[in-house]
Amino acid sequence: MADDKFYTMGKEKILVIGANGQIGSVLTEALRKSFGADMVIASDIRQVEGHDGPFEILNVLDRQGIADMVKRHGITQIYHLAAILSARGEQNPLQTWDINMGGLFNVFEVARESGVSKVFFPSSIAVFGADIPRQMTPQNAVLKPTTVYGMSKAAGELWSQYYFQKYGLDIRSLRYPGVIGWQSNPGGGTTDYAVDIYHYAVRGEDYSCFLSENTFLPMIYMDDAIRATLELMDAPSENIKERTSYNLSGMSFSPSEIAACIQTEMPDFTVSYSPDFRQKIADSWPSSIDDSAARKDWDWQPKFDLKGMTKDMLFQLQKKYSAVV
Ligand code: SER
Q: Less CB within 10 Å around the terminal CB: N or C of the chain?
């Protein structure tokens, strides 16, 4: 969980769009701890139980609906987390583009017109593709994404910069690597295996991995991902030198490394490998990320490595599963 520190003081009223998602749900809780439960309006396309504060149904494709909500609640900051991820996005490319880009334009336009002061837009390692150094991929590597999701994120980064330069809208963005947490489940991503594998281990089941054993990808523990988001949003505007999106990294590992790490705690756990269409997506992405710009501009520093994350994931999931049995 993010530090219980009060980030930006003052009368911020925050709208989280996509608050039921893997990152959105945990981020909403962290924002509520920092800003107060009633100061954070959670929204998503459908209602789920368990929100500890105001929740409203909102379709990101409904621009008027977003505008009304912003006005009604006096919203000053928007966290826009609704998107179709890399693997699922390939099932219906044009629809993915429409949702990811349509949602983005709706949020940016409403923010610009209503005087919202800050917007968070998540980008991804999926913006990278051919012609990059795979190891320690630099901040300014060429962007040639191969998935519609990656294309929408690369375009979104440029639009973020455009809105900042043209309209002064303070949009901030991170290129999240695979995000791993016990609190919520990802859906439709290529890095999802790294969450699934812990659930199988804790349930005492064998795991069949959809990526090959030596596929290295950049990853980050949820606690670090949330803290990075809050720290980026809290940094003074003049420190934000990257107005497209910041490379962000926590760690990098392969399926066989995460399996071995789990096996040190659970020696009977077994993993087999049967790569599917997601292998090609993973092969187009960096194996590790150079996030020195984030470290320099707003003091980014991850806390969790593979070992620390595995210990916490297994502990938290064991607790979670034993609570429901
Ligand atoms: N976790 C995402 C995915 O796999 C990457 O941003 O699609």
A: C
Strand spans (E) along the chain: 14-17, 40-44, 55-57, 77-80, 118-124, 170-176, 178-180, 207-209, 217-221, 246-247, 251-253, 271-273
SS (HEC) of 152-201? HHHHHHHHHHHHHHHHCCEEEEEEECEEECCCCCCCCCCCCHHHHHHHHH
Taking only the tens place, the pLDDT of each residue in 269-297 is 999 999 999 999 999 999 999 999 999 99
The closest residue, in CA terms, to atom 2 on ligand 1 is: 189
Distance 114 CA to ligand 1 centre (A): 31
As a whole number of angstroms, the distance between CA 225 and CA 186 comes to 14
Name the 3-class secondary structure at 128: coil
**Which pLDDT tens digit goes with each residue over 28-44?**
999 999 999 999 999 99
Assess whether pLDDT exceeds 60 at residue 8. no
- The pTM score is 0.95
Q: Is 126 in the pocket of ligand 1 (CB under 6 A)?
A: yes
Which residues are tagged catalytic?
Answer: 149
Judge whether residue 158 has pLDDT over 60.
yes
Domain locations in the chain as residue ranges: 14-179+220-250+299-304
The single residue listed with the structure tokens 């993915």 is 96
Residue ID of nearest Cα to ligand 1 atom 1: 178
215 lines ligand 1 (CB under 6 A): no
Instruction: Please tell me the predicted confidence (pLDDT) of residue 325.
Output: 60
Give domain 14-179+220-250+299-304's CATH superfamily: NAD(P)-binding Rossmann-like Domain (3.40.50.720)
Q: Whose CA is nearest to atom 6 of ligand 1?
A: 124
Ligand 1 centroid distance, CA of 86 (Å): 6
Closest approach atom of ligand 1 to CA 153: 6
Across all residues in the chain, what is the average pLDDT? 96
245 lines ligand 1 (CB under 6 A): no
- Whether the per-residue pLDDT at 10 is higher than 80: the answer is no
